[in-house]
Write a structure and sequence with these properties.
Blueprint: E1 24-30, E2 45-52, E3 54-59, E4 62-67, E5 70-74, E6 80-82, E7 93-99, H1 101-107, E8 125-127, H2 130-144, H3 154-176, E9 188-190, H4 192-203, H5 211-217, H6 222-233, H7 237-254, H8 259-266, H9 271-282, H10 286-297
Antiparallel strand pairs: 1-7, 2-5, 2-7, 3-4, 3-6, 4-9, 5-8
Helix pairs in contact: 2-3, 7-8
């Protein structure tokens, strides 16, 4: 195992939720991650591996309470947030891996899609037998090293990192295909109310959605619903709906629709609102975002 000083680290309160490196990032975080307490989503994949202590995460309508050795796999454009549990996560230590779809595609073969582990699963958290866990941990720690102990050749490190990344995802996909490694039911908490609201929003995204509509779906008064939803998710109903619309807009942009079609597809009533919310979340306009997509596909 690499010495502690060789591991790339980020502060627990660091709020950055975008990639600086082009293909992937690997780093360690320690302590309660107060920089990820609001719902967010990425256009890349995320893996969280718990090295020490405990960690909890809310993925759309489910809360996962993780312990040492657990893996959490988060698909792109899935709403998620850190779920704070008082005094439980102060000693938490975890490895975070961010990787782009393009990177995984370049590592995949025709008969093995290395992004498959993120899709179509009943759960997105796993606990593997100790042998497999330590093997996967070893690849992650090698990727998180800031330098090679044997050589200062950065070109060599890049090739070795690519090899480690390939091996990590090959074994991860094989293991994730086995249902016995899915997360234990007692460590997974479902939130039926959030699930019901989320499903209604998805089905009516191109329409005007009001708080009254959503409260009626779950048979609650408007004000009790607003309070309960914020309590469970940590965000307002309005912010949740906006995030859902932005995710749909990004999907439409990636499918080749123009900006006007994307706005309508995501249910934004006017361009000004669409532009303000899109730039506020992604830091660029929809048009500039589309330019980046075109560059990535060339």
């Amino acid at each position: 195992m690499a010495e502690e000083r060789h591991i790339r680290k980020r502060e627990a309160a660091d709020e950055r939720q975008y990639m600086i490196n082009e293909d992937y990032e690997v780093y360690e975080k320690q302590g309660a991650p107060m920089g990820a307490i609001s719902f967010h989503y990425h256009n890349f994949y995320e893996i969280i591996y718990v090295l020490e202590g405990e960690y909890s995460s809310l993925i759309e309508d489910r809360t996962y309470h993780m312990k040492k050795g657990d893996f959490l796999l988060i698909d792109q454009n899935v709403m998620h947030k850190y779920h704070y549990v008082e005094k439980k996560h102060d000693s938490s230590k975890r490895i975070i891996l961010w990787v782009t779809p393009q990177m995984l595609s370049s590592l995949s073969e025709a008969d093995m899609d290395l992004s498959a582990c993120f899709h179509g699963k009943e759960s997105c958290a796993y606990h593997f037998p100790i042998y497999y866990e330590e093997m996967l941990q070893g690849y992650l720690l090698k990727l998180a090293m800031t330098q090679m102990q044997e050589s200062a050749d950065m070109g060599a490190k890049k090739v070795l990192d690519r090899g480690c990344l390939t091996l990590f995802f090959v074994y991860l996909n094989i293991l994730c295909a086995r249902e016995e490694y899915l997360f234990a039911q007692e460590d997974l908490v479902s939130h039926p109310m959030v699930e019901q609201v989320s499903a209604y929003i998805d089905a009516h995204l191109t329409e005007r959605i009001t708080v009254e509509d959503l409260a009626e779906q779950v048979h609650m008064s408007k004000y009790y619903f607003l309070r309960k939803f914020k309590e469970l998710t940590g965000v307002t109903v309005h912010a949740f709906v906006i995030d859902k619309r932005l995710i749909k807009a990004c999907e439409a942009l990636r499918s080749g629709k123009n900006v006007t079609e994307c706005r309508q597809f995501a249910g934004f009533s006017d361009y000004t609102s669409f532009l303000r919310n899109f730039k506020g979340t992604f830091g660029v306009s929809p048009g500039k975002y589309m330019e980046y997509l075109i560059q990535d596909n060339q």
